[in-house]
Amino acid sequence: MKTLKGFLLESKILQEAAPSGAEYESIITVGYNQGKPPFSLSKAKDKAAFSGVSKFFPKYNKEAEALGNSFRKVTTGVMKQHGASKDTTSALWKKYSEKSKDTPKTDMFTPKHNISLKKKGGSQLMSAAAGEAVATVMGALEMTGKNTKAVKAIADDIENRFTKLMIDGAITALVDPSKDVKGSFKDMPKAERQKKIKEKIKIDKMHKDLGDSINEILGKYNSVKENIVYIATTGYSKFPEGSRGIANKLIEFDPKTGTLTHDIDTGGPNNISKSIKNMSKATKFYCAFKTSKKNPYSTLRTATGKFEYHQPLPDRTLNELMIDTLLDDLNLYGLDESYKYMTEDLVIENLFKKAIDKVKTIGGSIKDYLSGFFNKIVEGFKKAIAGIIKLGKKAFEALLNFLGLEITDAKIRISGVGGIFAS
User: Fold this and answer.
1) Which residue, 165, 199, 219, 267, has fewest beta-carbon neighbours within 10 Å?
2) What is the enclosing helix (H) or strand (E) of 226?
């Protein structure tokens, strides 16, 4: 009976599908915006995001809360999901890929960041069919401002040599009859099957030779390779300048621990970040079949090893830390239009008064609230300083930014409440 119960329990778990990539985008958006569970549609800042994953709550409450907390350390403002939409592509992309709309690289966005989200465990930068692969290479060439013949040859080879294997089933089922569970090839004559297998082997060799050639050429043109990785990461060249679909931050997360394993600011097309350049050095390209139910086709893919990434400067200043803490105390998840033209000092003053009024209304101790508020700020300050210390050469710049200090003409100008800690 124990064995039977265990089997039934395991079967039930297997039947309960885990969240997909798009659903994790929504779960993170909910956890980030709403803070602590229970999560509800009435509290949702992105109602579509909540509605899409409401079935996962309360089971995924802790995961959403943990991931939300992790994301609030690296970005600010209300988060919206974007990855479920299709964005208009650039003229270059339309020309080579023949796609007028495509999936954006931005999965979620806040006022500061367009975030490309990756789940820990082998997420690839790209897996592109012929048209998109050619568009990526040509976009990288356009970024360099040079029409390098050797690199242009990569695009030509992809366009001319990428192909399809015309079969009514998966490659694994074609090659291994024991995996042909759907019987896709059971009626195929043995001679015809062997012919298709030989064709598959021939294409595999072409894929390997082409992949080796691409790596050899890009090894000689580092700037082009960096541009390809930058485009694959951000969607630059894929979408028009200023498009929401272009990401400026790459985040990899671990759903098991609720932590971020990569937090990378990408830089711009004219100043690609050091982290993206390091990622480029650790990236190799290869060609392989895109497996599908039928007619698998050639794709250009990436394999990225370990690389050193540089933690961006803290996004939150001390002022913003205070504002976020007050918003949390007031159970608010963003500033409304009434704060639009206020300075940060006035925002803090206004929110602080509201927090005190809330404590008075419920008959709480103002002294206890002030003590708790100060402890939260000190704790946030300690975490920020710990992160700043790890930045090495950029630590001083990051410290000034966090405190709201600006050096002008050999003098220090203090903005906001940073002077309390600076003096």
Assistant:
1) 219
2) helix 222-234
The pTM for the full model equals: 0.72
Average pLDDT, the chain: 86
Nearest-Å Rg of the Cα atoms of the chain is: 26
Q: H or E stretch including 81?
A: strand 80-81
Q: Quick check: 126 and 301 in contact, CB under 8 A?
A: yes
Q: Give the pLDDT confidence of 171-210 residue by residue, as tens digits.
A: 999 999 888 888 889 889 999 999 999 999 999 999 999 9
Rounded CA-CA distance 326/161 in Å is 59
Length, in residues, of the chain:
423
Q: Is the dihedral of CA 423, 347, 36, 55 positive or negative?
A: negative
Cis amide prior to 37 (ω within 30 degrees)? no
The residue written with tokens 């939150």 in the block is: 316
Give residue-wise pLDDT tens across range 232-255. Answer: 999 999 999 999 999 999 999 998
Sign of CA dihedral 227, 233, 236, 241: negative
How many CA atoms, within 13 angstroms, populate the side-chain half-sphere of residue 115? Answer: 28
Residue 391 has pLDDT above 70, yes or no: no
Q: Which two tokens stand for residue 359?
A: 């404590």
